[in-house]
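User: Can you predict the 3D structure for this chain?
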Amino acid sequence: MKTALVLGATGLVGRTLVNILLQDRRYSEVICLVRKPLQSKLFADPHDKLKPVVVDFDSLQDYQGYFGVDHVYCCLGTTIKQAGSKAAFRRVDFEYVHIAAQLTRAQRAGSFVWISSVGADAHSGNFYLRVKGELENAIMRMTQLPHAAAVRPSLLLGERNESRTLEDIAQKTAPVWKLLMQGPLKKYRPVHAVDVARNMMARQKW
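Assistant: Here is the predicted structure, written as structure tokens:
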């Protein structure tokens, strides 16, 4: 039986992932590091596996003991609009995730999987994609973190707690995207959160 640690459990993918992990017989415990107490109605936990821990992400190093698990899943992410500035966005999407990877390495967890983005490129002219690419480079260059993997979804489909304009449009036009995006463009199709969550699980070291 394995133990999972999830960061970003209240987002679209994180919430979906946690619910899948709670139903997976291979896991005996699912620890979630969160900013505030979880709403129990968001999760089905019939086997009492869910262990939420309220933390200060600006002091994530203080909680490094929680990273000594089998699998670390990092679903942290925001938008520049939500964060309020490029600096605040970078703090969440780069710094928090990078620190989580460092703590995973320090505590010798089995593996680390995080959400990046299709098109991530450290040399991109797009700030969002550049940050995602810089993070990929930073984590993949880390020594003694051999089982690290990035999942690169396009626009996400699923029921969010908040509205995101591009993803709302993608939700409504998904059948059209599927028809138009063939061959090399297939990777840019909008993707359901459940597929991203299952892809993250598949990338872990079992």
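Residues 86-106 form the longest helix (21 residues). The two ends are 11 Å apart (CA to CA).
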